[in-house]
Structures are given as structure tokens and as C-alpha cells.
Amino acid sequence: MISTRFLPAVCGLVAVxxxxxxxxxxxxxxxxxxxxxxxxxxxxxxxxGAPSGRNATWGxxxxxxxxxxxxxxxxxxxxxxxxxxxxxxxxxxxxxxELAVTEDTFPRTEIRRFxxxxxxxxxxxQAETGGVGLYALQYDDAFVEDPIRFQLRxxxxxxxxxxxxxxxxxxxxxxxxxxxxxxxxLGLFFEAIxxxxxxxxxxxx
Length: 205
Hints:
Blueprint: H1 7-25, E1 43-44, E2 47-51, H2 58-63, E3 67-75, E4 78-87, H3 90-94, H4 98-101, E5 108-112, E6 122-126, E7 132-139, E8 142-143, H5 147-160, E9 166-173, H6 185-197
Antiparallel strand pairs: 1-2, 2-3, 3-4, 4-9, 5-6, 6-7, 7-8, 7-9
């Protein structure tokens, strides 16, 4: 039997332990920020986009996402594919998203900060075929450079607060005709990010 003098402390510990359960099991804990991938325009930085034709169930199957868009953008002879996915399963987005988004093999990956937008860490992938993949990860109005550190830092927060969506921006250029720094499609990539992040105000229903 527990001494009555310990009851307040025990009750306090039980109450704290129940908070995550109540938040995630008995309420809609998802934080809605008013943003949607559908709002990204079909015309960006001089490129005109059209739906890629990806299967409608792809986002849910690969990323547990019901909010995603993918278009093929063209400007003259230049053709790139832009994929934007939102998910409350952050790991599904940051753990090798290229395996789900493209069919290329990328033996080389580095993180770059481009002069146009140095505040955004961009993962640059070099394909065996010569193609290039670029992607950025956004969470709670900030960009993620180190997914593992992000996961460790946010683990405690996620226990006691509502779930927030992570957003993946992925650009695939299968036939680049210049170095990564000079890619014309960099403008498209950063404008897509800007158009997406400029919408919505954080709110919980």
C-alpha cells in the first residue's frame, strides 16, 4: 500500500503521463496552418506546369499524405518535375524521399545553401544518369538541415503539443545542361517554396 503522503506526487505523475494520451488519442491533435500544396501555381518563374499523372493513391501509400501535388514544368527545352508533399509522419518525408519520388539512383548527396536563398538548406542529389535532384524540408515555418537532430529536438514537443505537418519540396531535373548553381529551375524551386509558405496562419480547430 502506498503511504498517503505520496499520493499527491503519484497523482501528479499519472496526470502528466496521461497528457500525451489525451492529446493524441481522444482529440484531433493535428495543427492546421491553413496551407495547401494545391495553392502552388501552375506557372512559376517562367515555367508552365501540368499534372504528372502520378496515381492518386501514391501520396497516401508512400508518405501517409492526403495533401500533395506533382507537376511537370517546362520552359523551352528545359523540363523538370516538382513534387510537394505534406505529411504528419515526418520520418516518411525526411528519410530518403528520393526512393519514393524518383526512379534514379543517387550515390552522392550534399547539403548546399545557394546565394539566392542562403537561409534554406537544400539537399542536392547527383544521379548516376547525370540527373540532379534537389529537396528541402520545412517544419513549423523553419527549414530542416539535420533530420536526426530535428527528431531528437522535437520528440518532447510532439508528446505534449498537437501534431504539425512537415513539407517536402522536391525538384527533379533528369537532363541538366548546366552546373547546379546555374540551373534555371532553381528559380522555380525557390518560388514554389515562397508561394507555399506565404499562405495561411497557424491555428488549431
